[in-house]
Amino acid sequence: MGIFHTVDDNEIKSGENTDIYFVRTSDILALEGKNPVVTVEITAQNLPDEWGVFCGLDDALSLLEGLPVDVYAMPEGSIFYRGEPVIRISGHYRDFAKYETSLLGFICHASGIATSAAIIKACAAQRPVYSFGSRRQHPAISRMIERSAWVGGVDGASSTSAPAGIPLAGTMPHAFVMCFEKPLDAWLAFDRHAPGDVPRVMLCDTYCDEKREALDAAKAGASAVRLDTPSSRKGDMRQILEEVRWELDINGFPDVGIFLSGGLTADDILKYRDIVDAFGVGGSIANAQVIDFSLDIVEIEEKIYSKRGKKSGVKEVYEFDNGDHLLLPKGVTPPEDAKPMIKIFIKDGQILTKPDMQKSRARVLSSIENMI
């Protein structure tokens, strides 16, 4: 046992981290001599928005590697819609039944974060968005949070646990400013000692009026000023931003940007994106609503089945150049210009290919350009 309340990799990989009814199901099926060949599909019947971003495939493949199954899936970073299968598994049911809990956990959580990040990134209209929310979740999953946010399109992350290849971004906390006699001393110290490649973004709302501190920071050499209390201000945040921008411009600092953070939502970004140069987003990404995926049998011993409320039979998803999707039963010929989205990733337990985080992110960014 570790010192923290976390589940280790071995418990997940062995299938020990599961719901108890899967243990009982497997035991009783074994006693009855039943282990049918089935095909299951993972779909979401309800989404937080009109579309979702599929994420978490990397962990899902690592979980299923070595099991006697075939796994098909949409590429990570694919846009998907309600009722579309994102993963399909074929094999003897008892060989993978106990892995359902972890499998769904991997993709439900990661896809929820990636989806929220993609929506926020689309709302930002080309302005940088940084993930500041790993502190809003258990530290054991901070790497997953930052990876999922990156796949969703953010431009950097604050957590030092972010996977390699994700730029780290962060300015300074209020505590840093408060350790000095006055904000100016803090900003000058930061400028003296921070690495040269770290932008001189100065936090400007610790003690005084934002526009006063912003102007002082600009005079001290700030490349941008960061405002971090939009949700706690009793005044009109729009007015505050306009005043800061006005004072910077009229005093000869038009190139000093405004960085906004602090409880931001997608609606906030839509409201402020015309005047703000970059955003730091915490809980709206890290605490995103999970995608409510479910795993359902659609075929048993090559015969189509479904439970009530689900569509029976194996399905394929096709995508057109304009981004539209088409769902068809397997075996039905699609239109010539429709491209199949579901690919094979595991054959007889062997991984054929794994997601590339950078390609997954590029797939999202190319898809969301005109979505908001």
TrEMBL record:
GO terms for molecular function: nicotinate phosphoribosyltransferase activity; nicotinate-nucleotide diphosphorylase (carboxylating) activity. InterPro entries: Aldolase_TIM, NAPRTase-like, Nic_PRibTrfase-Fam, Nicotinate_pribotase-like_C, Quinolinate_PRibosylTase_N_sf, Quinolinate_PRibosylTrfase_C, Quinolinate_PRibosylTrfase_N. The lineage of its organism: Archaea, Methanobacteriati, Methanobacteriota, Stenosarchaea group, Methanomicrobia. Residues 19-111 form the Quinolinate phosphoribosyl transferase N-terminal domain. It catalyses: 5-phospho-alpha-D-ribose 1-diphosphate + nicotinate + ATP + H2O = nicotinate beta-D-ribonucleotide + ADP + phosphate + diphosphate. One of its GO terms (biological process) is NAD+ biosynthetic process. The keyword Phosphoprotein applies. This is nicotinate phosphoribosyltransferase. NCBIfam families: PRK08662.1 (NF006415). Residues 113-296 form the Quinolinate phosphoribosyl transferase C-terminal domain.
